[in-house]
Amino acid sequence: MPAESECRPNVLFVICDDLNNAIEGLGRRPCAPCPNLQRLMRGGVSFLNAQNNCPVCLPSRNSLLSGLYAHTTGQYTLWDPWPATPPLAVTGARQAAYRNVPLLGRAVMLPQHFRDNGYDTFGVGKVHHEGRVKSEWWTDYAYGPDYGPFLWDPVRKCQRAHPDRLWLYEGEPMLSYAGRYEGLDRFFLNGREFRHHIEMAFASMPEAFGGPDAEIGNSRGEPFRYANDDDRDPLPDEKAAAWAVDVLRREHDKPFFLGVGFMKPHTPLNAPQRFFDMFPPDELELPPVLAGDCDDCARALVEHRPYGFLTYRMILKGGEPLWRKWLQAYLACIAFMDEQLGKVLDALDASPYRDNTIVVFTSDNGFHMGEKEFLFKDTLWEEAGQIPLIVSAPGVARPGTVCRRPVSLIDIYPTLVDLCDLPRQPHAATHGHPLDGHSLRPFLEDPENGTWAGPDLSLTSVRGDTGVHHSVRSERYRYILCRNGEEELYDHTSDPHEWRNLAGDSAHATVKVELRRQMMELLHGCP
After folding, report:
1. What domains does the chain contain, in order, with CATH numbers?
2. Which of 341, 327, 333 is nearest to 261 (CA)?
3. Which one of 44, 150, 202, 323 is separated from 69 by 20 to 30 angstroms, measured CA to CA?
4. What is the pTM of this model?
């Protein structure tokens, strides 16, 4: 009789941070050649219209891991953490911004559901946003997120700007930003001195850390040793890959769920020089950017979060050459991540678990690379909403196929429950709320013509300075509804870059009404 580990499928779940579809074969430009991701694509189904449900790290990951929408739990931002107790350093007005999310606190998170049903669960890196380990979730969790290394200021206990980039913080647009958010201690010291240099640290490791007096640390201020690219401490993603490889080389007498959270391409955008050499800046194709693109956008969205506009304008102070260096760094970090993924896939292929392991690869949110004159996440436009999603399921998924139906991260939990034959209602005993998503099995079996129980569109939500706003993406359209009633509508057949807002076009009134109706169904009447 075969061992239990040979009967029930294992799961390798890989999630990246801030990775958009700038991957060869997924349609974004410019893009990075990713031979290991393309190997995964050849063995599974690539979902080309996959969206996240909240384009910010923490709420996106908690939505995925709980199987519950942001509007179901009430968690939309980094200031709505789970658990809901703010860190000790957060006081005053910012402490009041923390909201209780009791439904999420009682949810049976994805790895816990696997462990409750006979699986060993292993995790490393940034699977959950804050890296908090709960004993009921994991059999073994190596360590959580590490955003470093970066230049470290031991006196101020924060990141230090690279000396060559200090001029970017002078004058506009920083003055306007500081005036708007004076006193926000996450970004400013004494309400004046900018401390959040993570977006402007893009450079190869020799350029970033090669100075003779450089003090280098991680996000906890712990030292990082760097002499050169060949003589240094391992980077967080290298450590995560090595730990995952070790797990795959072990002999398992139970089925396993292995979660691997790669940090890259989250900022700071640093990697060894050889990855930067793959992308000479002068040879890069620039993203499609339309000057004044936001002129016809909803004001509530333009004012939702100014940070991405600030970042783009700061980089453009250096002109196109500096923008090209940022693109080089982003793509280099994607290529670096792909190499780490390859180590994990090689270990899986060399293991006895190769033919009985489901592989899911995805990202928590997309990222603007300058489109809409924006360079960050946390928007409802396609660049931040769309994410890579590749699923390989031996005996189920059709190898080397693509699915263009709209799906989202909310569907991963029910898909794995279905494929691994786990109980379908994990939250029944805690709060009785069903999973909000639907199994992707019909699309794995028939990517073009599969019929599933899910909706004809995917839902993404944000909350920012102007309130809560929602977007739905169908095969053809994106529709956005803001808290104040402003709307946006884009036809991806004729306008893949979302340059022309058709919300006021009478010829599309019927389409807009129908998309809004379907949005309201998904929101269950929530504003």
Report:
1. 4-149+235-523 (3.40.720.10)
2. 341
3. 44
4. 0.94
